[in-house]
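assembly run, all chains below
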Amino acid sequence: MINMQRVYFATGNPHKVEEAKLILRDYNVELMHLNTQRVEIQSSDLVEIAVYSLNQIVKDFKQPVFVEDTGLFINSLNGFPGPFSSYVFKTLGNKGIIKLMKGEADRNALFKTVIAFKESDRDQIKIFIGETLGLISEEIRGVGWGYDPLFIPLEGDGRTYAEMSLEEKNLLSHRFKALKSLGDYLRKV
Amino acid sequence: MINMQRVYFATGNPHKVEEAKLILRDYNVELMHLNTQRVEIQSSDLVEIAVYSLNQIVKDFKQPVFVEDTGLFINSLNGFPGPFSSYVFKTLGNKGIIKLMKGEADRNALFKTVIAFKESDRDQIKIFIGETLGLISEEIRGVGWGYDPLFIPLEGDGRTYAEMSLEEKNLLSHRFKALKSLGDYLRKV
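ok done. output:
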């Protein structure tokens, strides 16, 4: 019988939990949802945001727990929308990004996920990072969540995330890379 | 002899302190600079951001103190850049706003300042708000700080904030309105 390790994912987004559950199961992690309104600070650094958020949570919660923060950093826009990707998506959407990128020759972008994890009995926060380089497409391609219809991963074949099957996307995805690093660490603990 | 009231302005920006000092002097307030790195959370609500920030500060600071948060809310961009005005200015700048607003018929916008104030001996936070309605200009006009070269206050004569003298701007300015409300309150205390 395999011993499953119980770890909590602190987020207000149940879809992210379902996604992470599938990945972490392969690492003998039983993922639980800690449904909480995270405090996200304004910073241009995802690690700072995640660590602050986690520190607020672990004040009252003593189980192994992690938070995740993701941003799309576009080169020619000085890293915009970066840590504010979710707010920018809600207000400007992909239409706004296309408008901002009109005429820009440099279409390089970085999708980055930071996971901050804290174990119940230790004080130290562990950071796991997943990054995927890509290009911003000139128009919306495919149907997908968030910026997926605009992001063409460099390691791919020219399709956007949204034009790929979930399995294809997961092989390249920034979020999956971060979750797999967490999984590797937990397996060794 | 007039009794001056000592109040602290918690901000990392000394220019804002100088500006506020001049206004609040008329209300017999001696403004002091509490130079501190404020914690700004990600929220679409300026009041929530200011209150959180102030609550972090007053944990260690027992004098009368306030924080200020300002945002430009553009109608046709669903309130963007809103509470993230400073980050968006640093990354996209006025050039980016002009690009986003290209072809938009509705150019209405709101400049809003929220001040959260706490007195030494009371628990309650007082909120003071200053708002100015305006239009987003089609191009950069005048030389000024932040979004001033793009913002045409409705109460004005068609010039942007940046095309006005400081005295003219102050008569209409969102930040001045909020500081004056604070001044009125302090005079009555």
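Chain A touches chain B through 23 residues (CB under 8 Å).

Chain A has a mean pLDDT of 92.

not gonna interpret more than that til we talk
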